[in-house]
Amino acid sequence: MSEAIRLAWHQFHLERRMLWRNPSAAFFNMALPLIFLALFGAVFNDDRDSLEIIVPGIAGMAVMATTFNSLSMNLTFLREQGVLKRIRGSAMPEGAYLTAVLASSVFNAVIQVVLITLAGRIFFDIGWPKDVAALAVFVAAGVACMGSLGIALSHVIPNFESASAYSNAIFLPMILISGTFFDTANTPAFLRDIAQALPLTHLIQGLKGAMITGHGVADNASNLAVVALWAAFGVFFAIRGFSWESRQAG
Amino acid sequence: MRPVSSAAPAILVRGLRKSYGAHEAVRGIDFEVAPGEVFGLLGPNGAGKTTTVEILEGHRRRTGGVVSVLGYDPDRRPRELRRRIGIVLQSTGLWRHITVREALTHFARLSSHPRSVEEVIDLVGLREKADAMAHTLSGGQLRRLDFALALIGDPELIFLDEPTTGYDPAARRGAWDVIRSLQELGKTILLTTHYLDEAQALCDRVAIVKDGRIIAEGPPSELGASASRYRVTWRSLETGELQTREVDDPTALLHQLTSAALARGEPLRDLSVTRPTLEEIYLELTGDAGAEEAPSGSVEDVHV
Predict the structure, then answer these.
(1) pTM for the whole structure
(2) What is the ipTM of this complex?
């Protein structure tokens, strides 16, 4: 067992090193949420109400980008490229390998939330999170939900060329209707209904409670329940459809 | 389950079957590979070679039959077995942003007694590319890296699925030298190939696979020698034309020809007695003619 942990640790280090060498991965996992935060923060610099929507909104978006987008594309690549098959034929325990891949993704999400929290405190004057425990709970639930949905989505993506289209077709509309950048009170009712059924809205509500308003886990239990329900759905399909072999290889 | 003794076969396959739905890819294959042997599975595309190898590697589960690899059942995918084998798949899958040296160092950690990274880099001829990222390598260089990754753990049994496909002739000779050096180290090797010269150059024994069955098996030289007839060619003393006849035993025919020539006091021109090459045997066996009655079994069963 300790050997599996040692190997997972080495794999995690390798994942970190490879992330920084891959310009596209480094941009989407690290730079993009921070660029959005800087731009929207600059635009709404004097508008406190908007900042209180944008900062937790972008934290929710960052959780989704680093897990859902990143894992759906990464696992499609690894599967189609044959890396998963190579790992499975080697002496690397499969569990240790997947743990390292997932841990690297979770690590990105945590870095993002920490940076966004710091930026909120330092540049936008919205203070420290009111409820750190609730923040941790919602980040954990968001990572589990978005990560498992990303893995489940990778099972549907036929090849790496189309991976970005599949994940962005879900990601981009979802961040627009889920209240990442603006208050959804003025959006059409049917869009609000759709957003209410999707997990990101509820993740952002939970993050906003923890970071801004001081509403904790108990106050946002229904939001947490929706995220958890999607997580259960995601985990079920992530495990069920998992394939170590390329779709093309048959 | 541990190997009973060192004399136990490295690979034992009995009645192996594999179906995908209604399609039977492997229909009852038997063979054994002794420790230290280089065994080749030779056959056309879709014959069942890769399926067979992937079952032995633990990548696919068999539908029926008995399989033992170093004394283990590969279906159970024991880690101890995975530590003792090296695999070169047909496709080369690796991360894009890792250097040759890093990849070898990383996979070396999986073994309790890895070979030296630098030594393996030299062995496969990637010295100049040691610090290059995988995505900058050519197809042939990636194949060599693949080879290196299979060797780095110093496995005792190595699976090579079409190891030289996509190589230029020089790289191919290089790969052959590496395989021979592994053989000298006492490694057991199971390789699949389309190339007859490769089978002839490297394998101690080959099995010709067609339609999921083994249709001939034996050392490449004997497969050529005993599976088919002799072909006797000479220039006719009467007509001056080239004559060819295929016989099981050329003794009587040669006696007839030479005594006729002696009796006439003329030289017997252009006489040759040849055995079919492995290539001819292969084409004969894998061609559609005679496919119906081609039995599975040993060399002795095969007639032309």
Answers:
(1) 0.83
(2) 0.89
